[in-house]
Design a protein that fits this description.
Blueprint lengths: L4 H16 L4 H41 L8 H4 L17
Helix pairs in contact: 1-2
């Protein structure tokens, strides 16, 4: 179950108001810790989204950069024969 960012921001505002209106330092710190936890939730969510995006980009770039295998044709495996016997194994055989 995903929680929307707006819901988290609303909870953060509530924690901030409670921290401002706290009577004791201990109470204020508790509300600030809750605020910090809500911030961490948002930051972790964005971090995971960024990591997912970078992994997708890596997959795309690796698939683009990978060499394409071309099947060998029958021309490369057969020796071309001519009437005068000029064609040898090397391209320099005349």
């Amino acid at each position: 179950m995903a929680v929307s960012r707006e819901t988290i921001f609303h909870k953060m505002e509530e924690c901030m108001k409670r921290a401002k209106n706290s009577d004791t330092t201990l109470e204020m710190r508790e509300h600030l810790r809750a605020l910090q936890a809500l911030c961490d939730v948002l930051l972790d969510d964005r971090l995971q989204a960024a990591e997912t995006l970078s992994k997708q980009e890596e997959n795309i770039s690796s698939s683009i950069q990978s060499p394409i295998s071309v099947p060998r044709t029958s021309l490369g495996s057969k020796k071309l024969e001519t009437d005068d016997g000029a064609n040898g194994d090397s391209i320099f055989d005349f």
